[in-house]
Amino acid sequence: PESQRREFAEKLESLLHRAYHLQEEFGSTFPADSMLLDLERTLMLPLTEGSLRLRADDEDSLTSEDSFFSATELFESLQVGDVPVPLSRPAAAYEEALQLVKEGKVPCRTLRTDLLGCYSDHDFLAKLHCVRQAFEGLLEDKSNQLFFGKVGRQMVMGLMTKAEKSPKGFLETYEEMLSYALRPETWATTRLELEGRGVVCMSFFDIVLDFILMDAFEDLENPPSSVLAVLRNRWLSDSFKETALATACWSVLKAKRRLLMVPDGFISHFYSVSEHVSPVLAFGFLGPKPQLAEVCAFFKHQIVQYLRDMFDLDNVRYTSVPALADDILQLSRRRSEILLGFLGAPVASSSIMNGALPCENGPLGELQ
């Protein structure tokens, strides 16, 4: 039956993914030809002329990627009885990106290989390239721009509400930042500012997910010793600790403002937003209130797991950029529903939002 053949084909594709990643992980410890032979014996595949030719060719190959592509060709011509099993390249977009990585054409600011559960730096960079392209396609649709923008706003509002803080100041500074970013005359300056911070690609992943969110989580994992000393002092009240932590956050942001190349640019507006959000996150992650700590831990877990799913060949399709974009959008909707539901915030839709991300050519409008 057609359904059984399709299921069998999907299992073979999954096996190819896992075999490739095993070779990525263990390198040259497995000879390429023996890997193919083991696969053929395990699956009891016929040794066709094509497969024998591929094995002979692989005798001259020592790289895991070559072995993987040869195995892919073998399965593409697979027949079960008299019925051909149509197998597309299981990760065609990923394979093409991997070649660009080998040629040194995929730059990045920070390698997130371990955090996102990738098998190697090359694996991370290849997936990063695909994710950038997927977001570029997604954000050409204004409804998707509205969706991602609204989700971000509602997540922060939900966190502040859980922390019993008014989101009014955050909303005002957020709208000011958005208004600044929407003005075409600011785009070139914003690009220069972000490039000065090491952001090598004006993409949604690089700016929002990596530069803003991942860096924030890293900073919270390594707080200054002076801050920890205050938080661990049992003689101080919780309210005093919260005030001291907020003061420390504001002092750091004030010092950073003095070093800005553009005093009233995008980064300055981002710092204005951070003045309202950073103290809440810091007290939540580091402070003595277990309920707030649980909320912040859940928030971080959902964000990190969202990214790990995005970089997992078993969870999203790397067969093509449009397929990956569609899976990322569905993944984004599912994760946002879980997180916003936990925070007690309204679930975002892709049709309503007060203000939109910039469209063509702007640094935020180029979010890929």
UniProtKB/TrEMBL annotation:
Membrane-protein topology: Multi-pass membrane protein
Keywords, in A-Z order: Membrane, Mitochondrion, Mitochondrion outer membrane, Transmembrane, Transmembrane helix
Residues spanning the signal sequence: none
Pfam families: Miga
InterPro entries found in the cross-reference section: Miga (IPR019392)
Cellular component GO terms, alphabetical: mitochondrial outer membrane; plasma membrane
Gene Ontology molecular function, alphabetical: protein heterodimerization activity; protein homodimerization activity
Chief location bin: mitochondrion
Subcellular location: Mitochondrion outer membrane
GO biological process, alphabetically ordered: mitochondrial fusion
Family of this protein: Belongs to the mitoguardin family.
Protein name: Mitoguardin 2
Gene transcribed to yield this protein: MIGA2
